[in-house]
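debug: dumping io for the single-chain case to check the tokenizer round-trip. Nothing else runs in this session.
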Amino acid sequence: MKKQFIATGANPLIRKETGSLVYQEDIKRSITILPELEALIPPMALEEFTQLEANILREGCREPLQIWRTSQSVLDGAGIDKPIFVLVDGHNRYRICTKHSVDFKLLVRDFVDMDAVRDFMIDNQLGRRNLNTEQMAYFRGLKYLNAKRSVGRPSATLSDGTAVTTGPMVSINQDNPGAYTGSRTENVLAEQFNVSPKTIRLDASFAKGVEKLSDTLKKEVLSRQTRLRKQDLIKLGESSQIDSVIESGSQLETALSGLSVPGKKLKSDPKEQEISTHSESTETTISAVIELANSLKMPDADIKHLGQQLLDHVKTLMKLASPKDDKPR
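debug: decoded output
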């Protein structure tokens, strides 16, 4: 039986009718894009965007764009009840339709607050099959962090209608989805995504590290246009000493080299540093291989896409395992 997952922080969505055609057109003319939410949409590769554009020009925009109907007061607390229509799904389709004057449909939704919207968007991305391993880790980490931000808010309901303050606790119950079991978030997400609780915690640190990157570098890292060591981003996320925005890989390396770790002896021997770096890279790659292998077991797994990623990581692991030539020259 399929597991039921109660998302932390997100109340059930209320689907609203979009009303008359005139009302729909009014919404289309006033759609708002919030950079904070748009940043949750992983960038498409150029060939993917080109293919999507060709499909829309040929077949029209078949999937409706999803809109959050809210007010200015909810967004900024200014007390102004001016209605705001925020795009929460379909940013690439909206860009293409606007550019080519292609009509599109709307699905208007109500959310309790911004955290509920974020949780919905994160779940929406995690439900896609074409995420690479970095994007998957990033969104799992965001989901964990979003759950932890929900401490003290009612986010689940018992079968008798009683509100439950879950905080960083969520519930999986196959027989009674309305029951609250109080499982720890990391354990629930680990079971949901078929990884270990430790992986979920590392994902959270990785996501925090990615959030410390500039918008440009963040997009490049998540789309694999720029390669940064996952272990370095995890260290960045776990560090409270680095609060500046990281603009490049070299800046990240410099920032990490200046970290002071209380009670831990710094490695001064270059050979020792090389061994440590090699060990961390191997451990990270092994984790990625295991994660991809588990993903292939999913009923709706994209075998070709995941298989290629798995092959790339296995090749990397073989290079890391190859003995170095230590012969004198």
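debug: round-trip ok. The radius of gyration is 22 Å.
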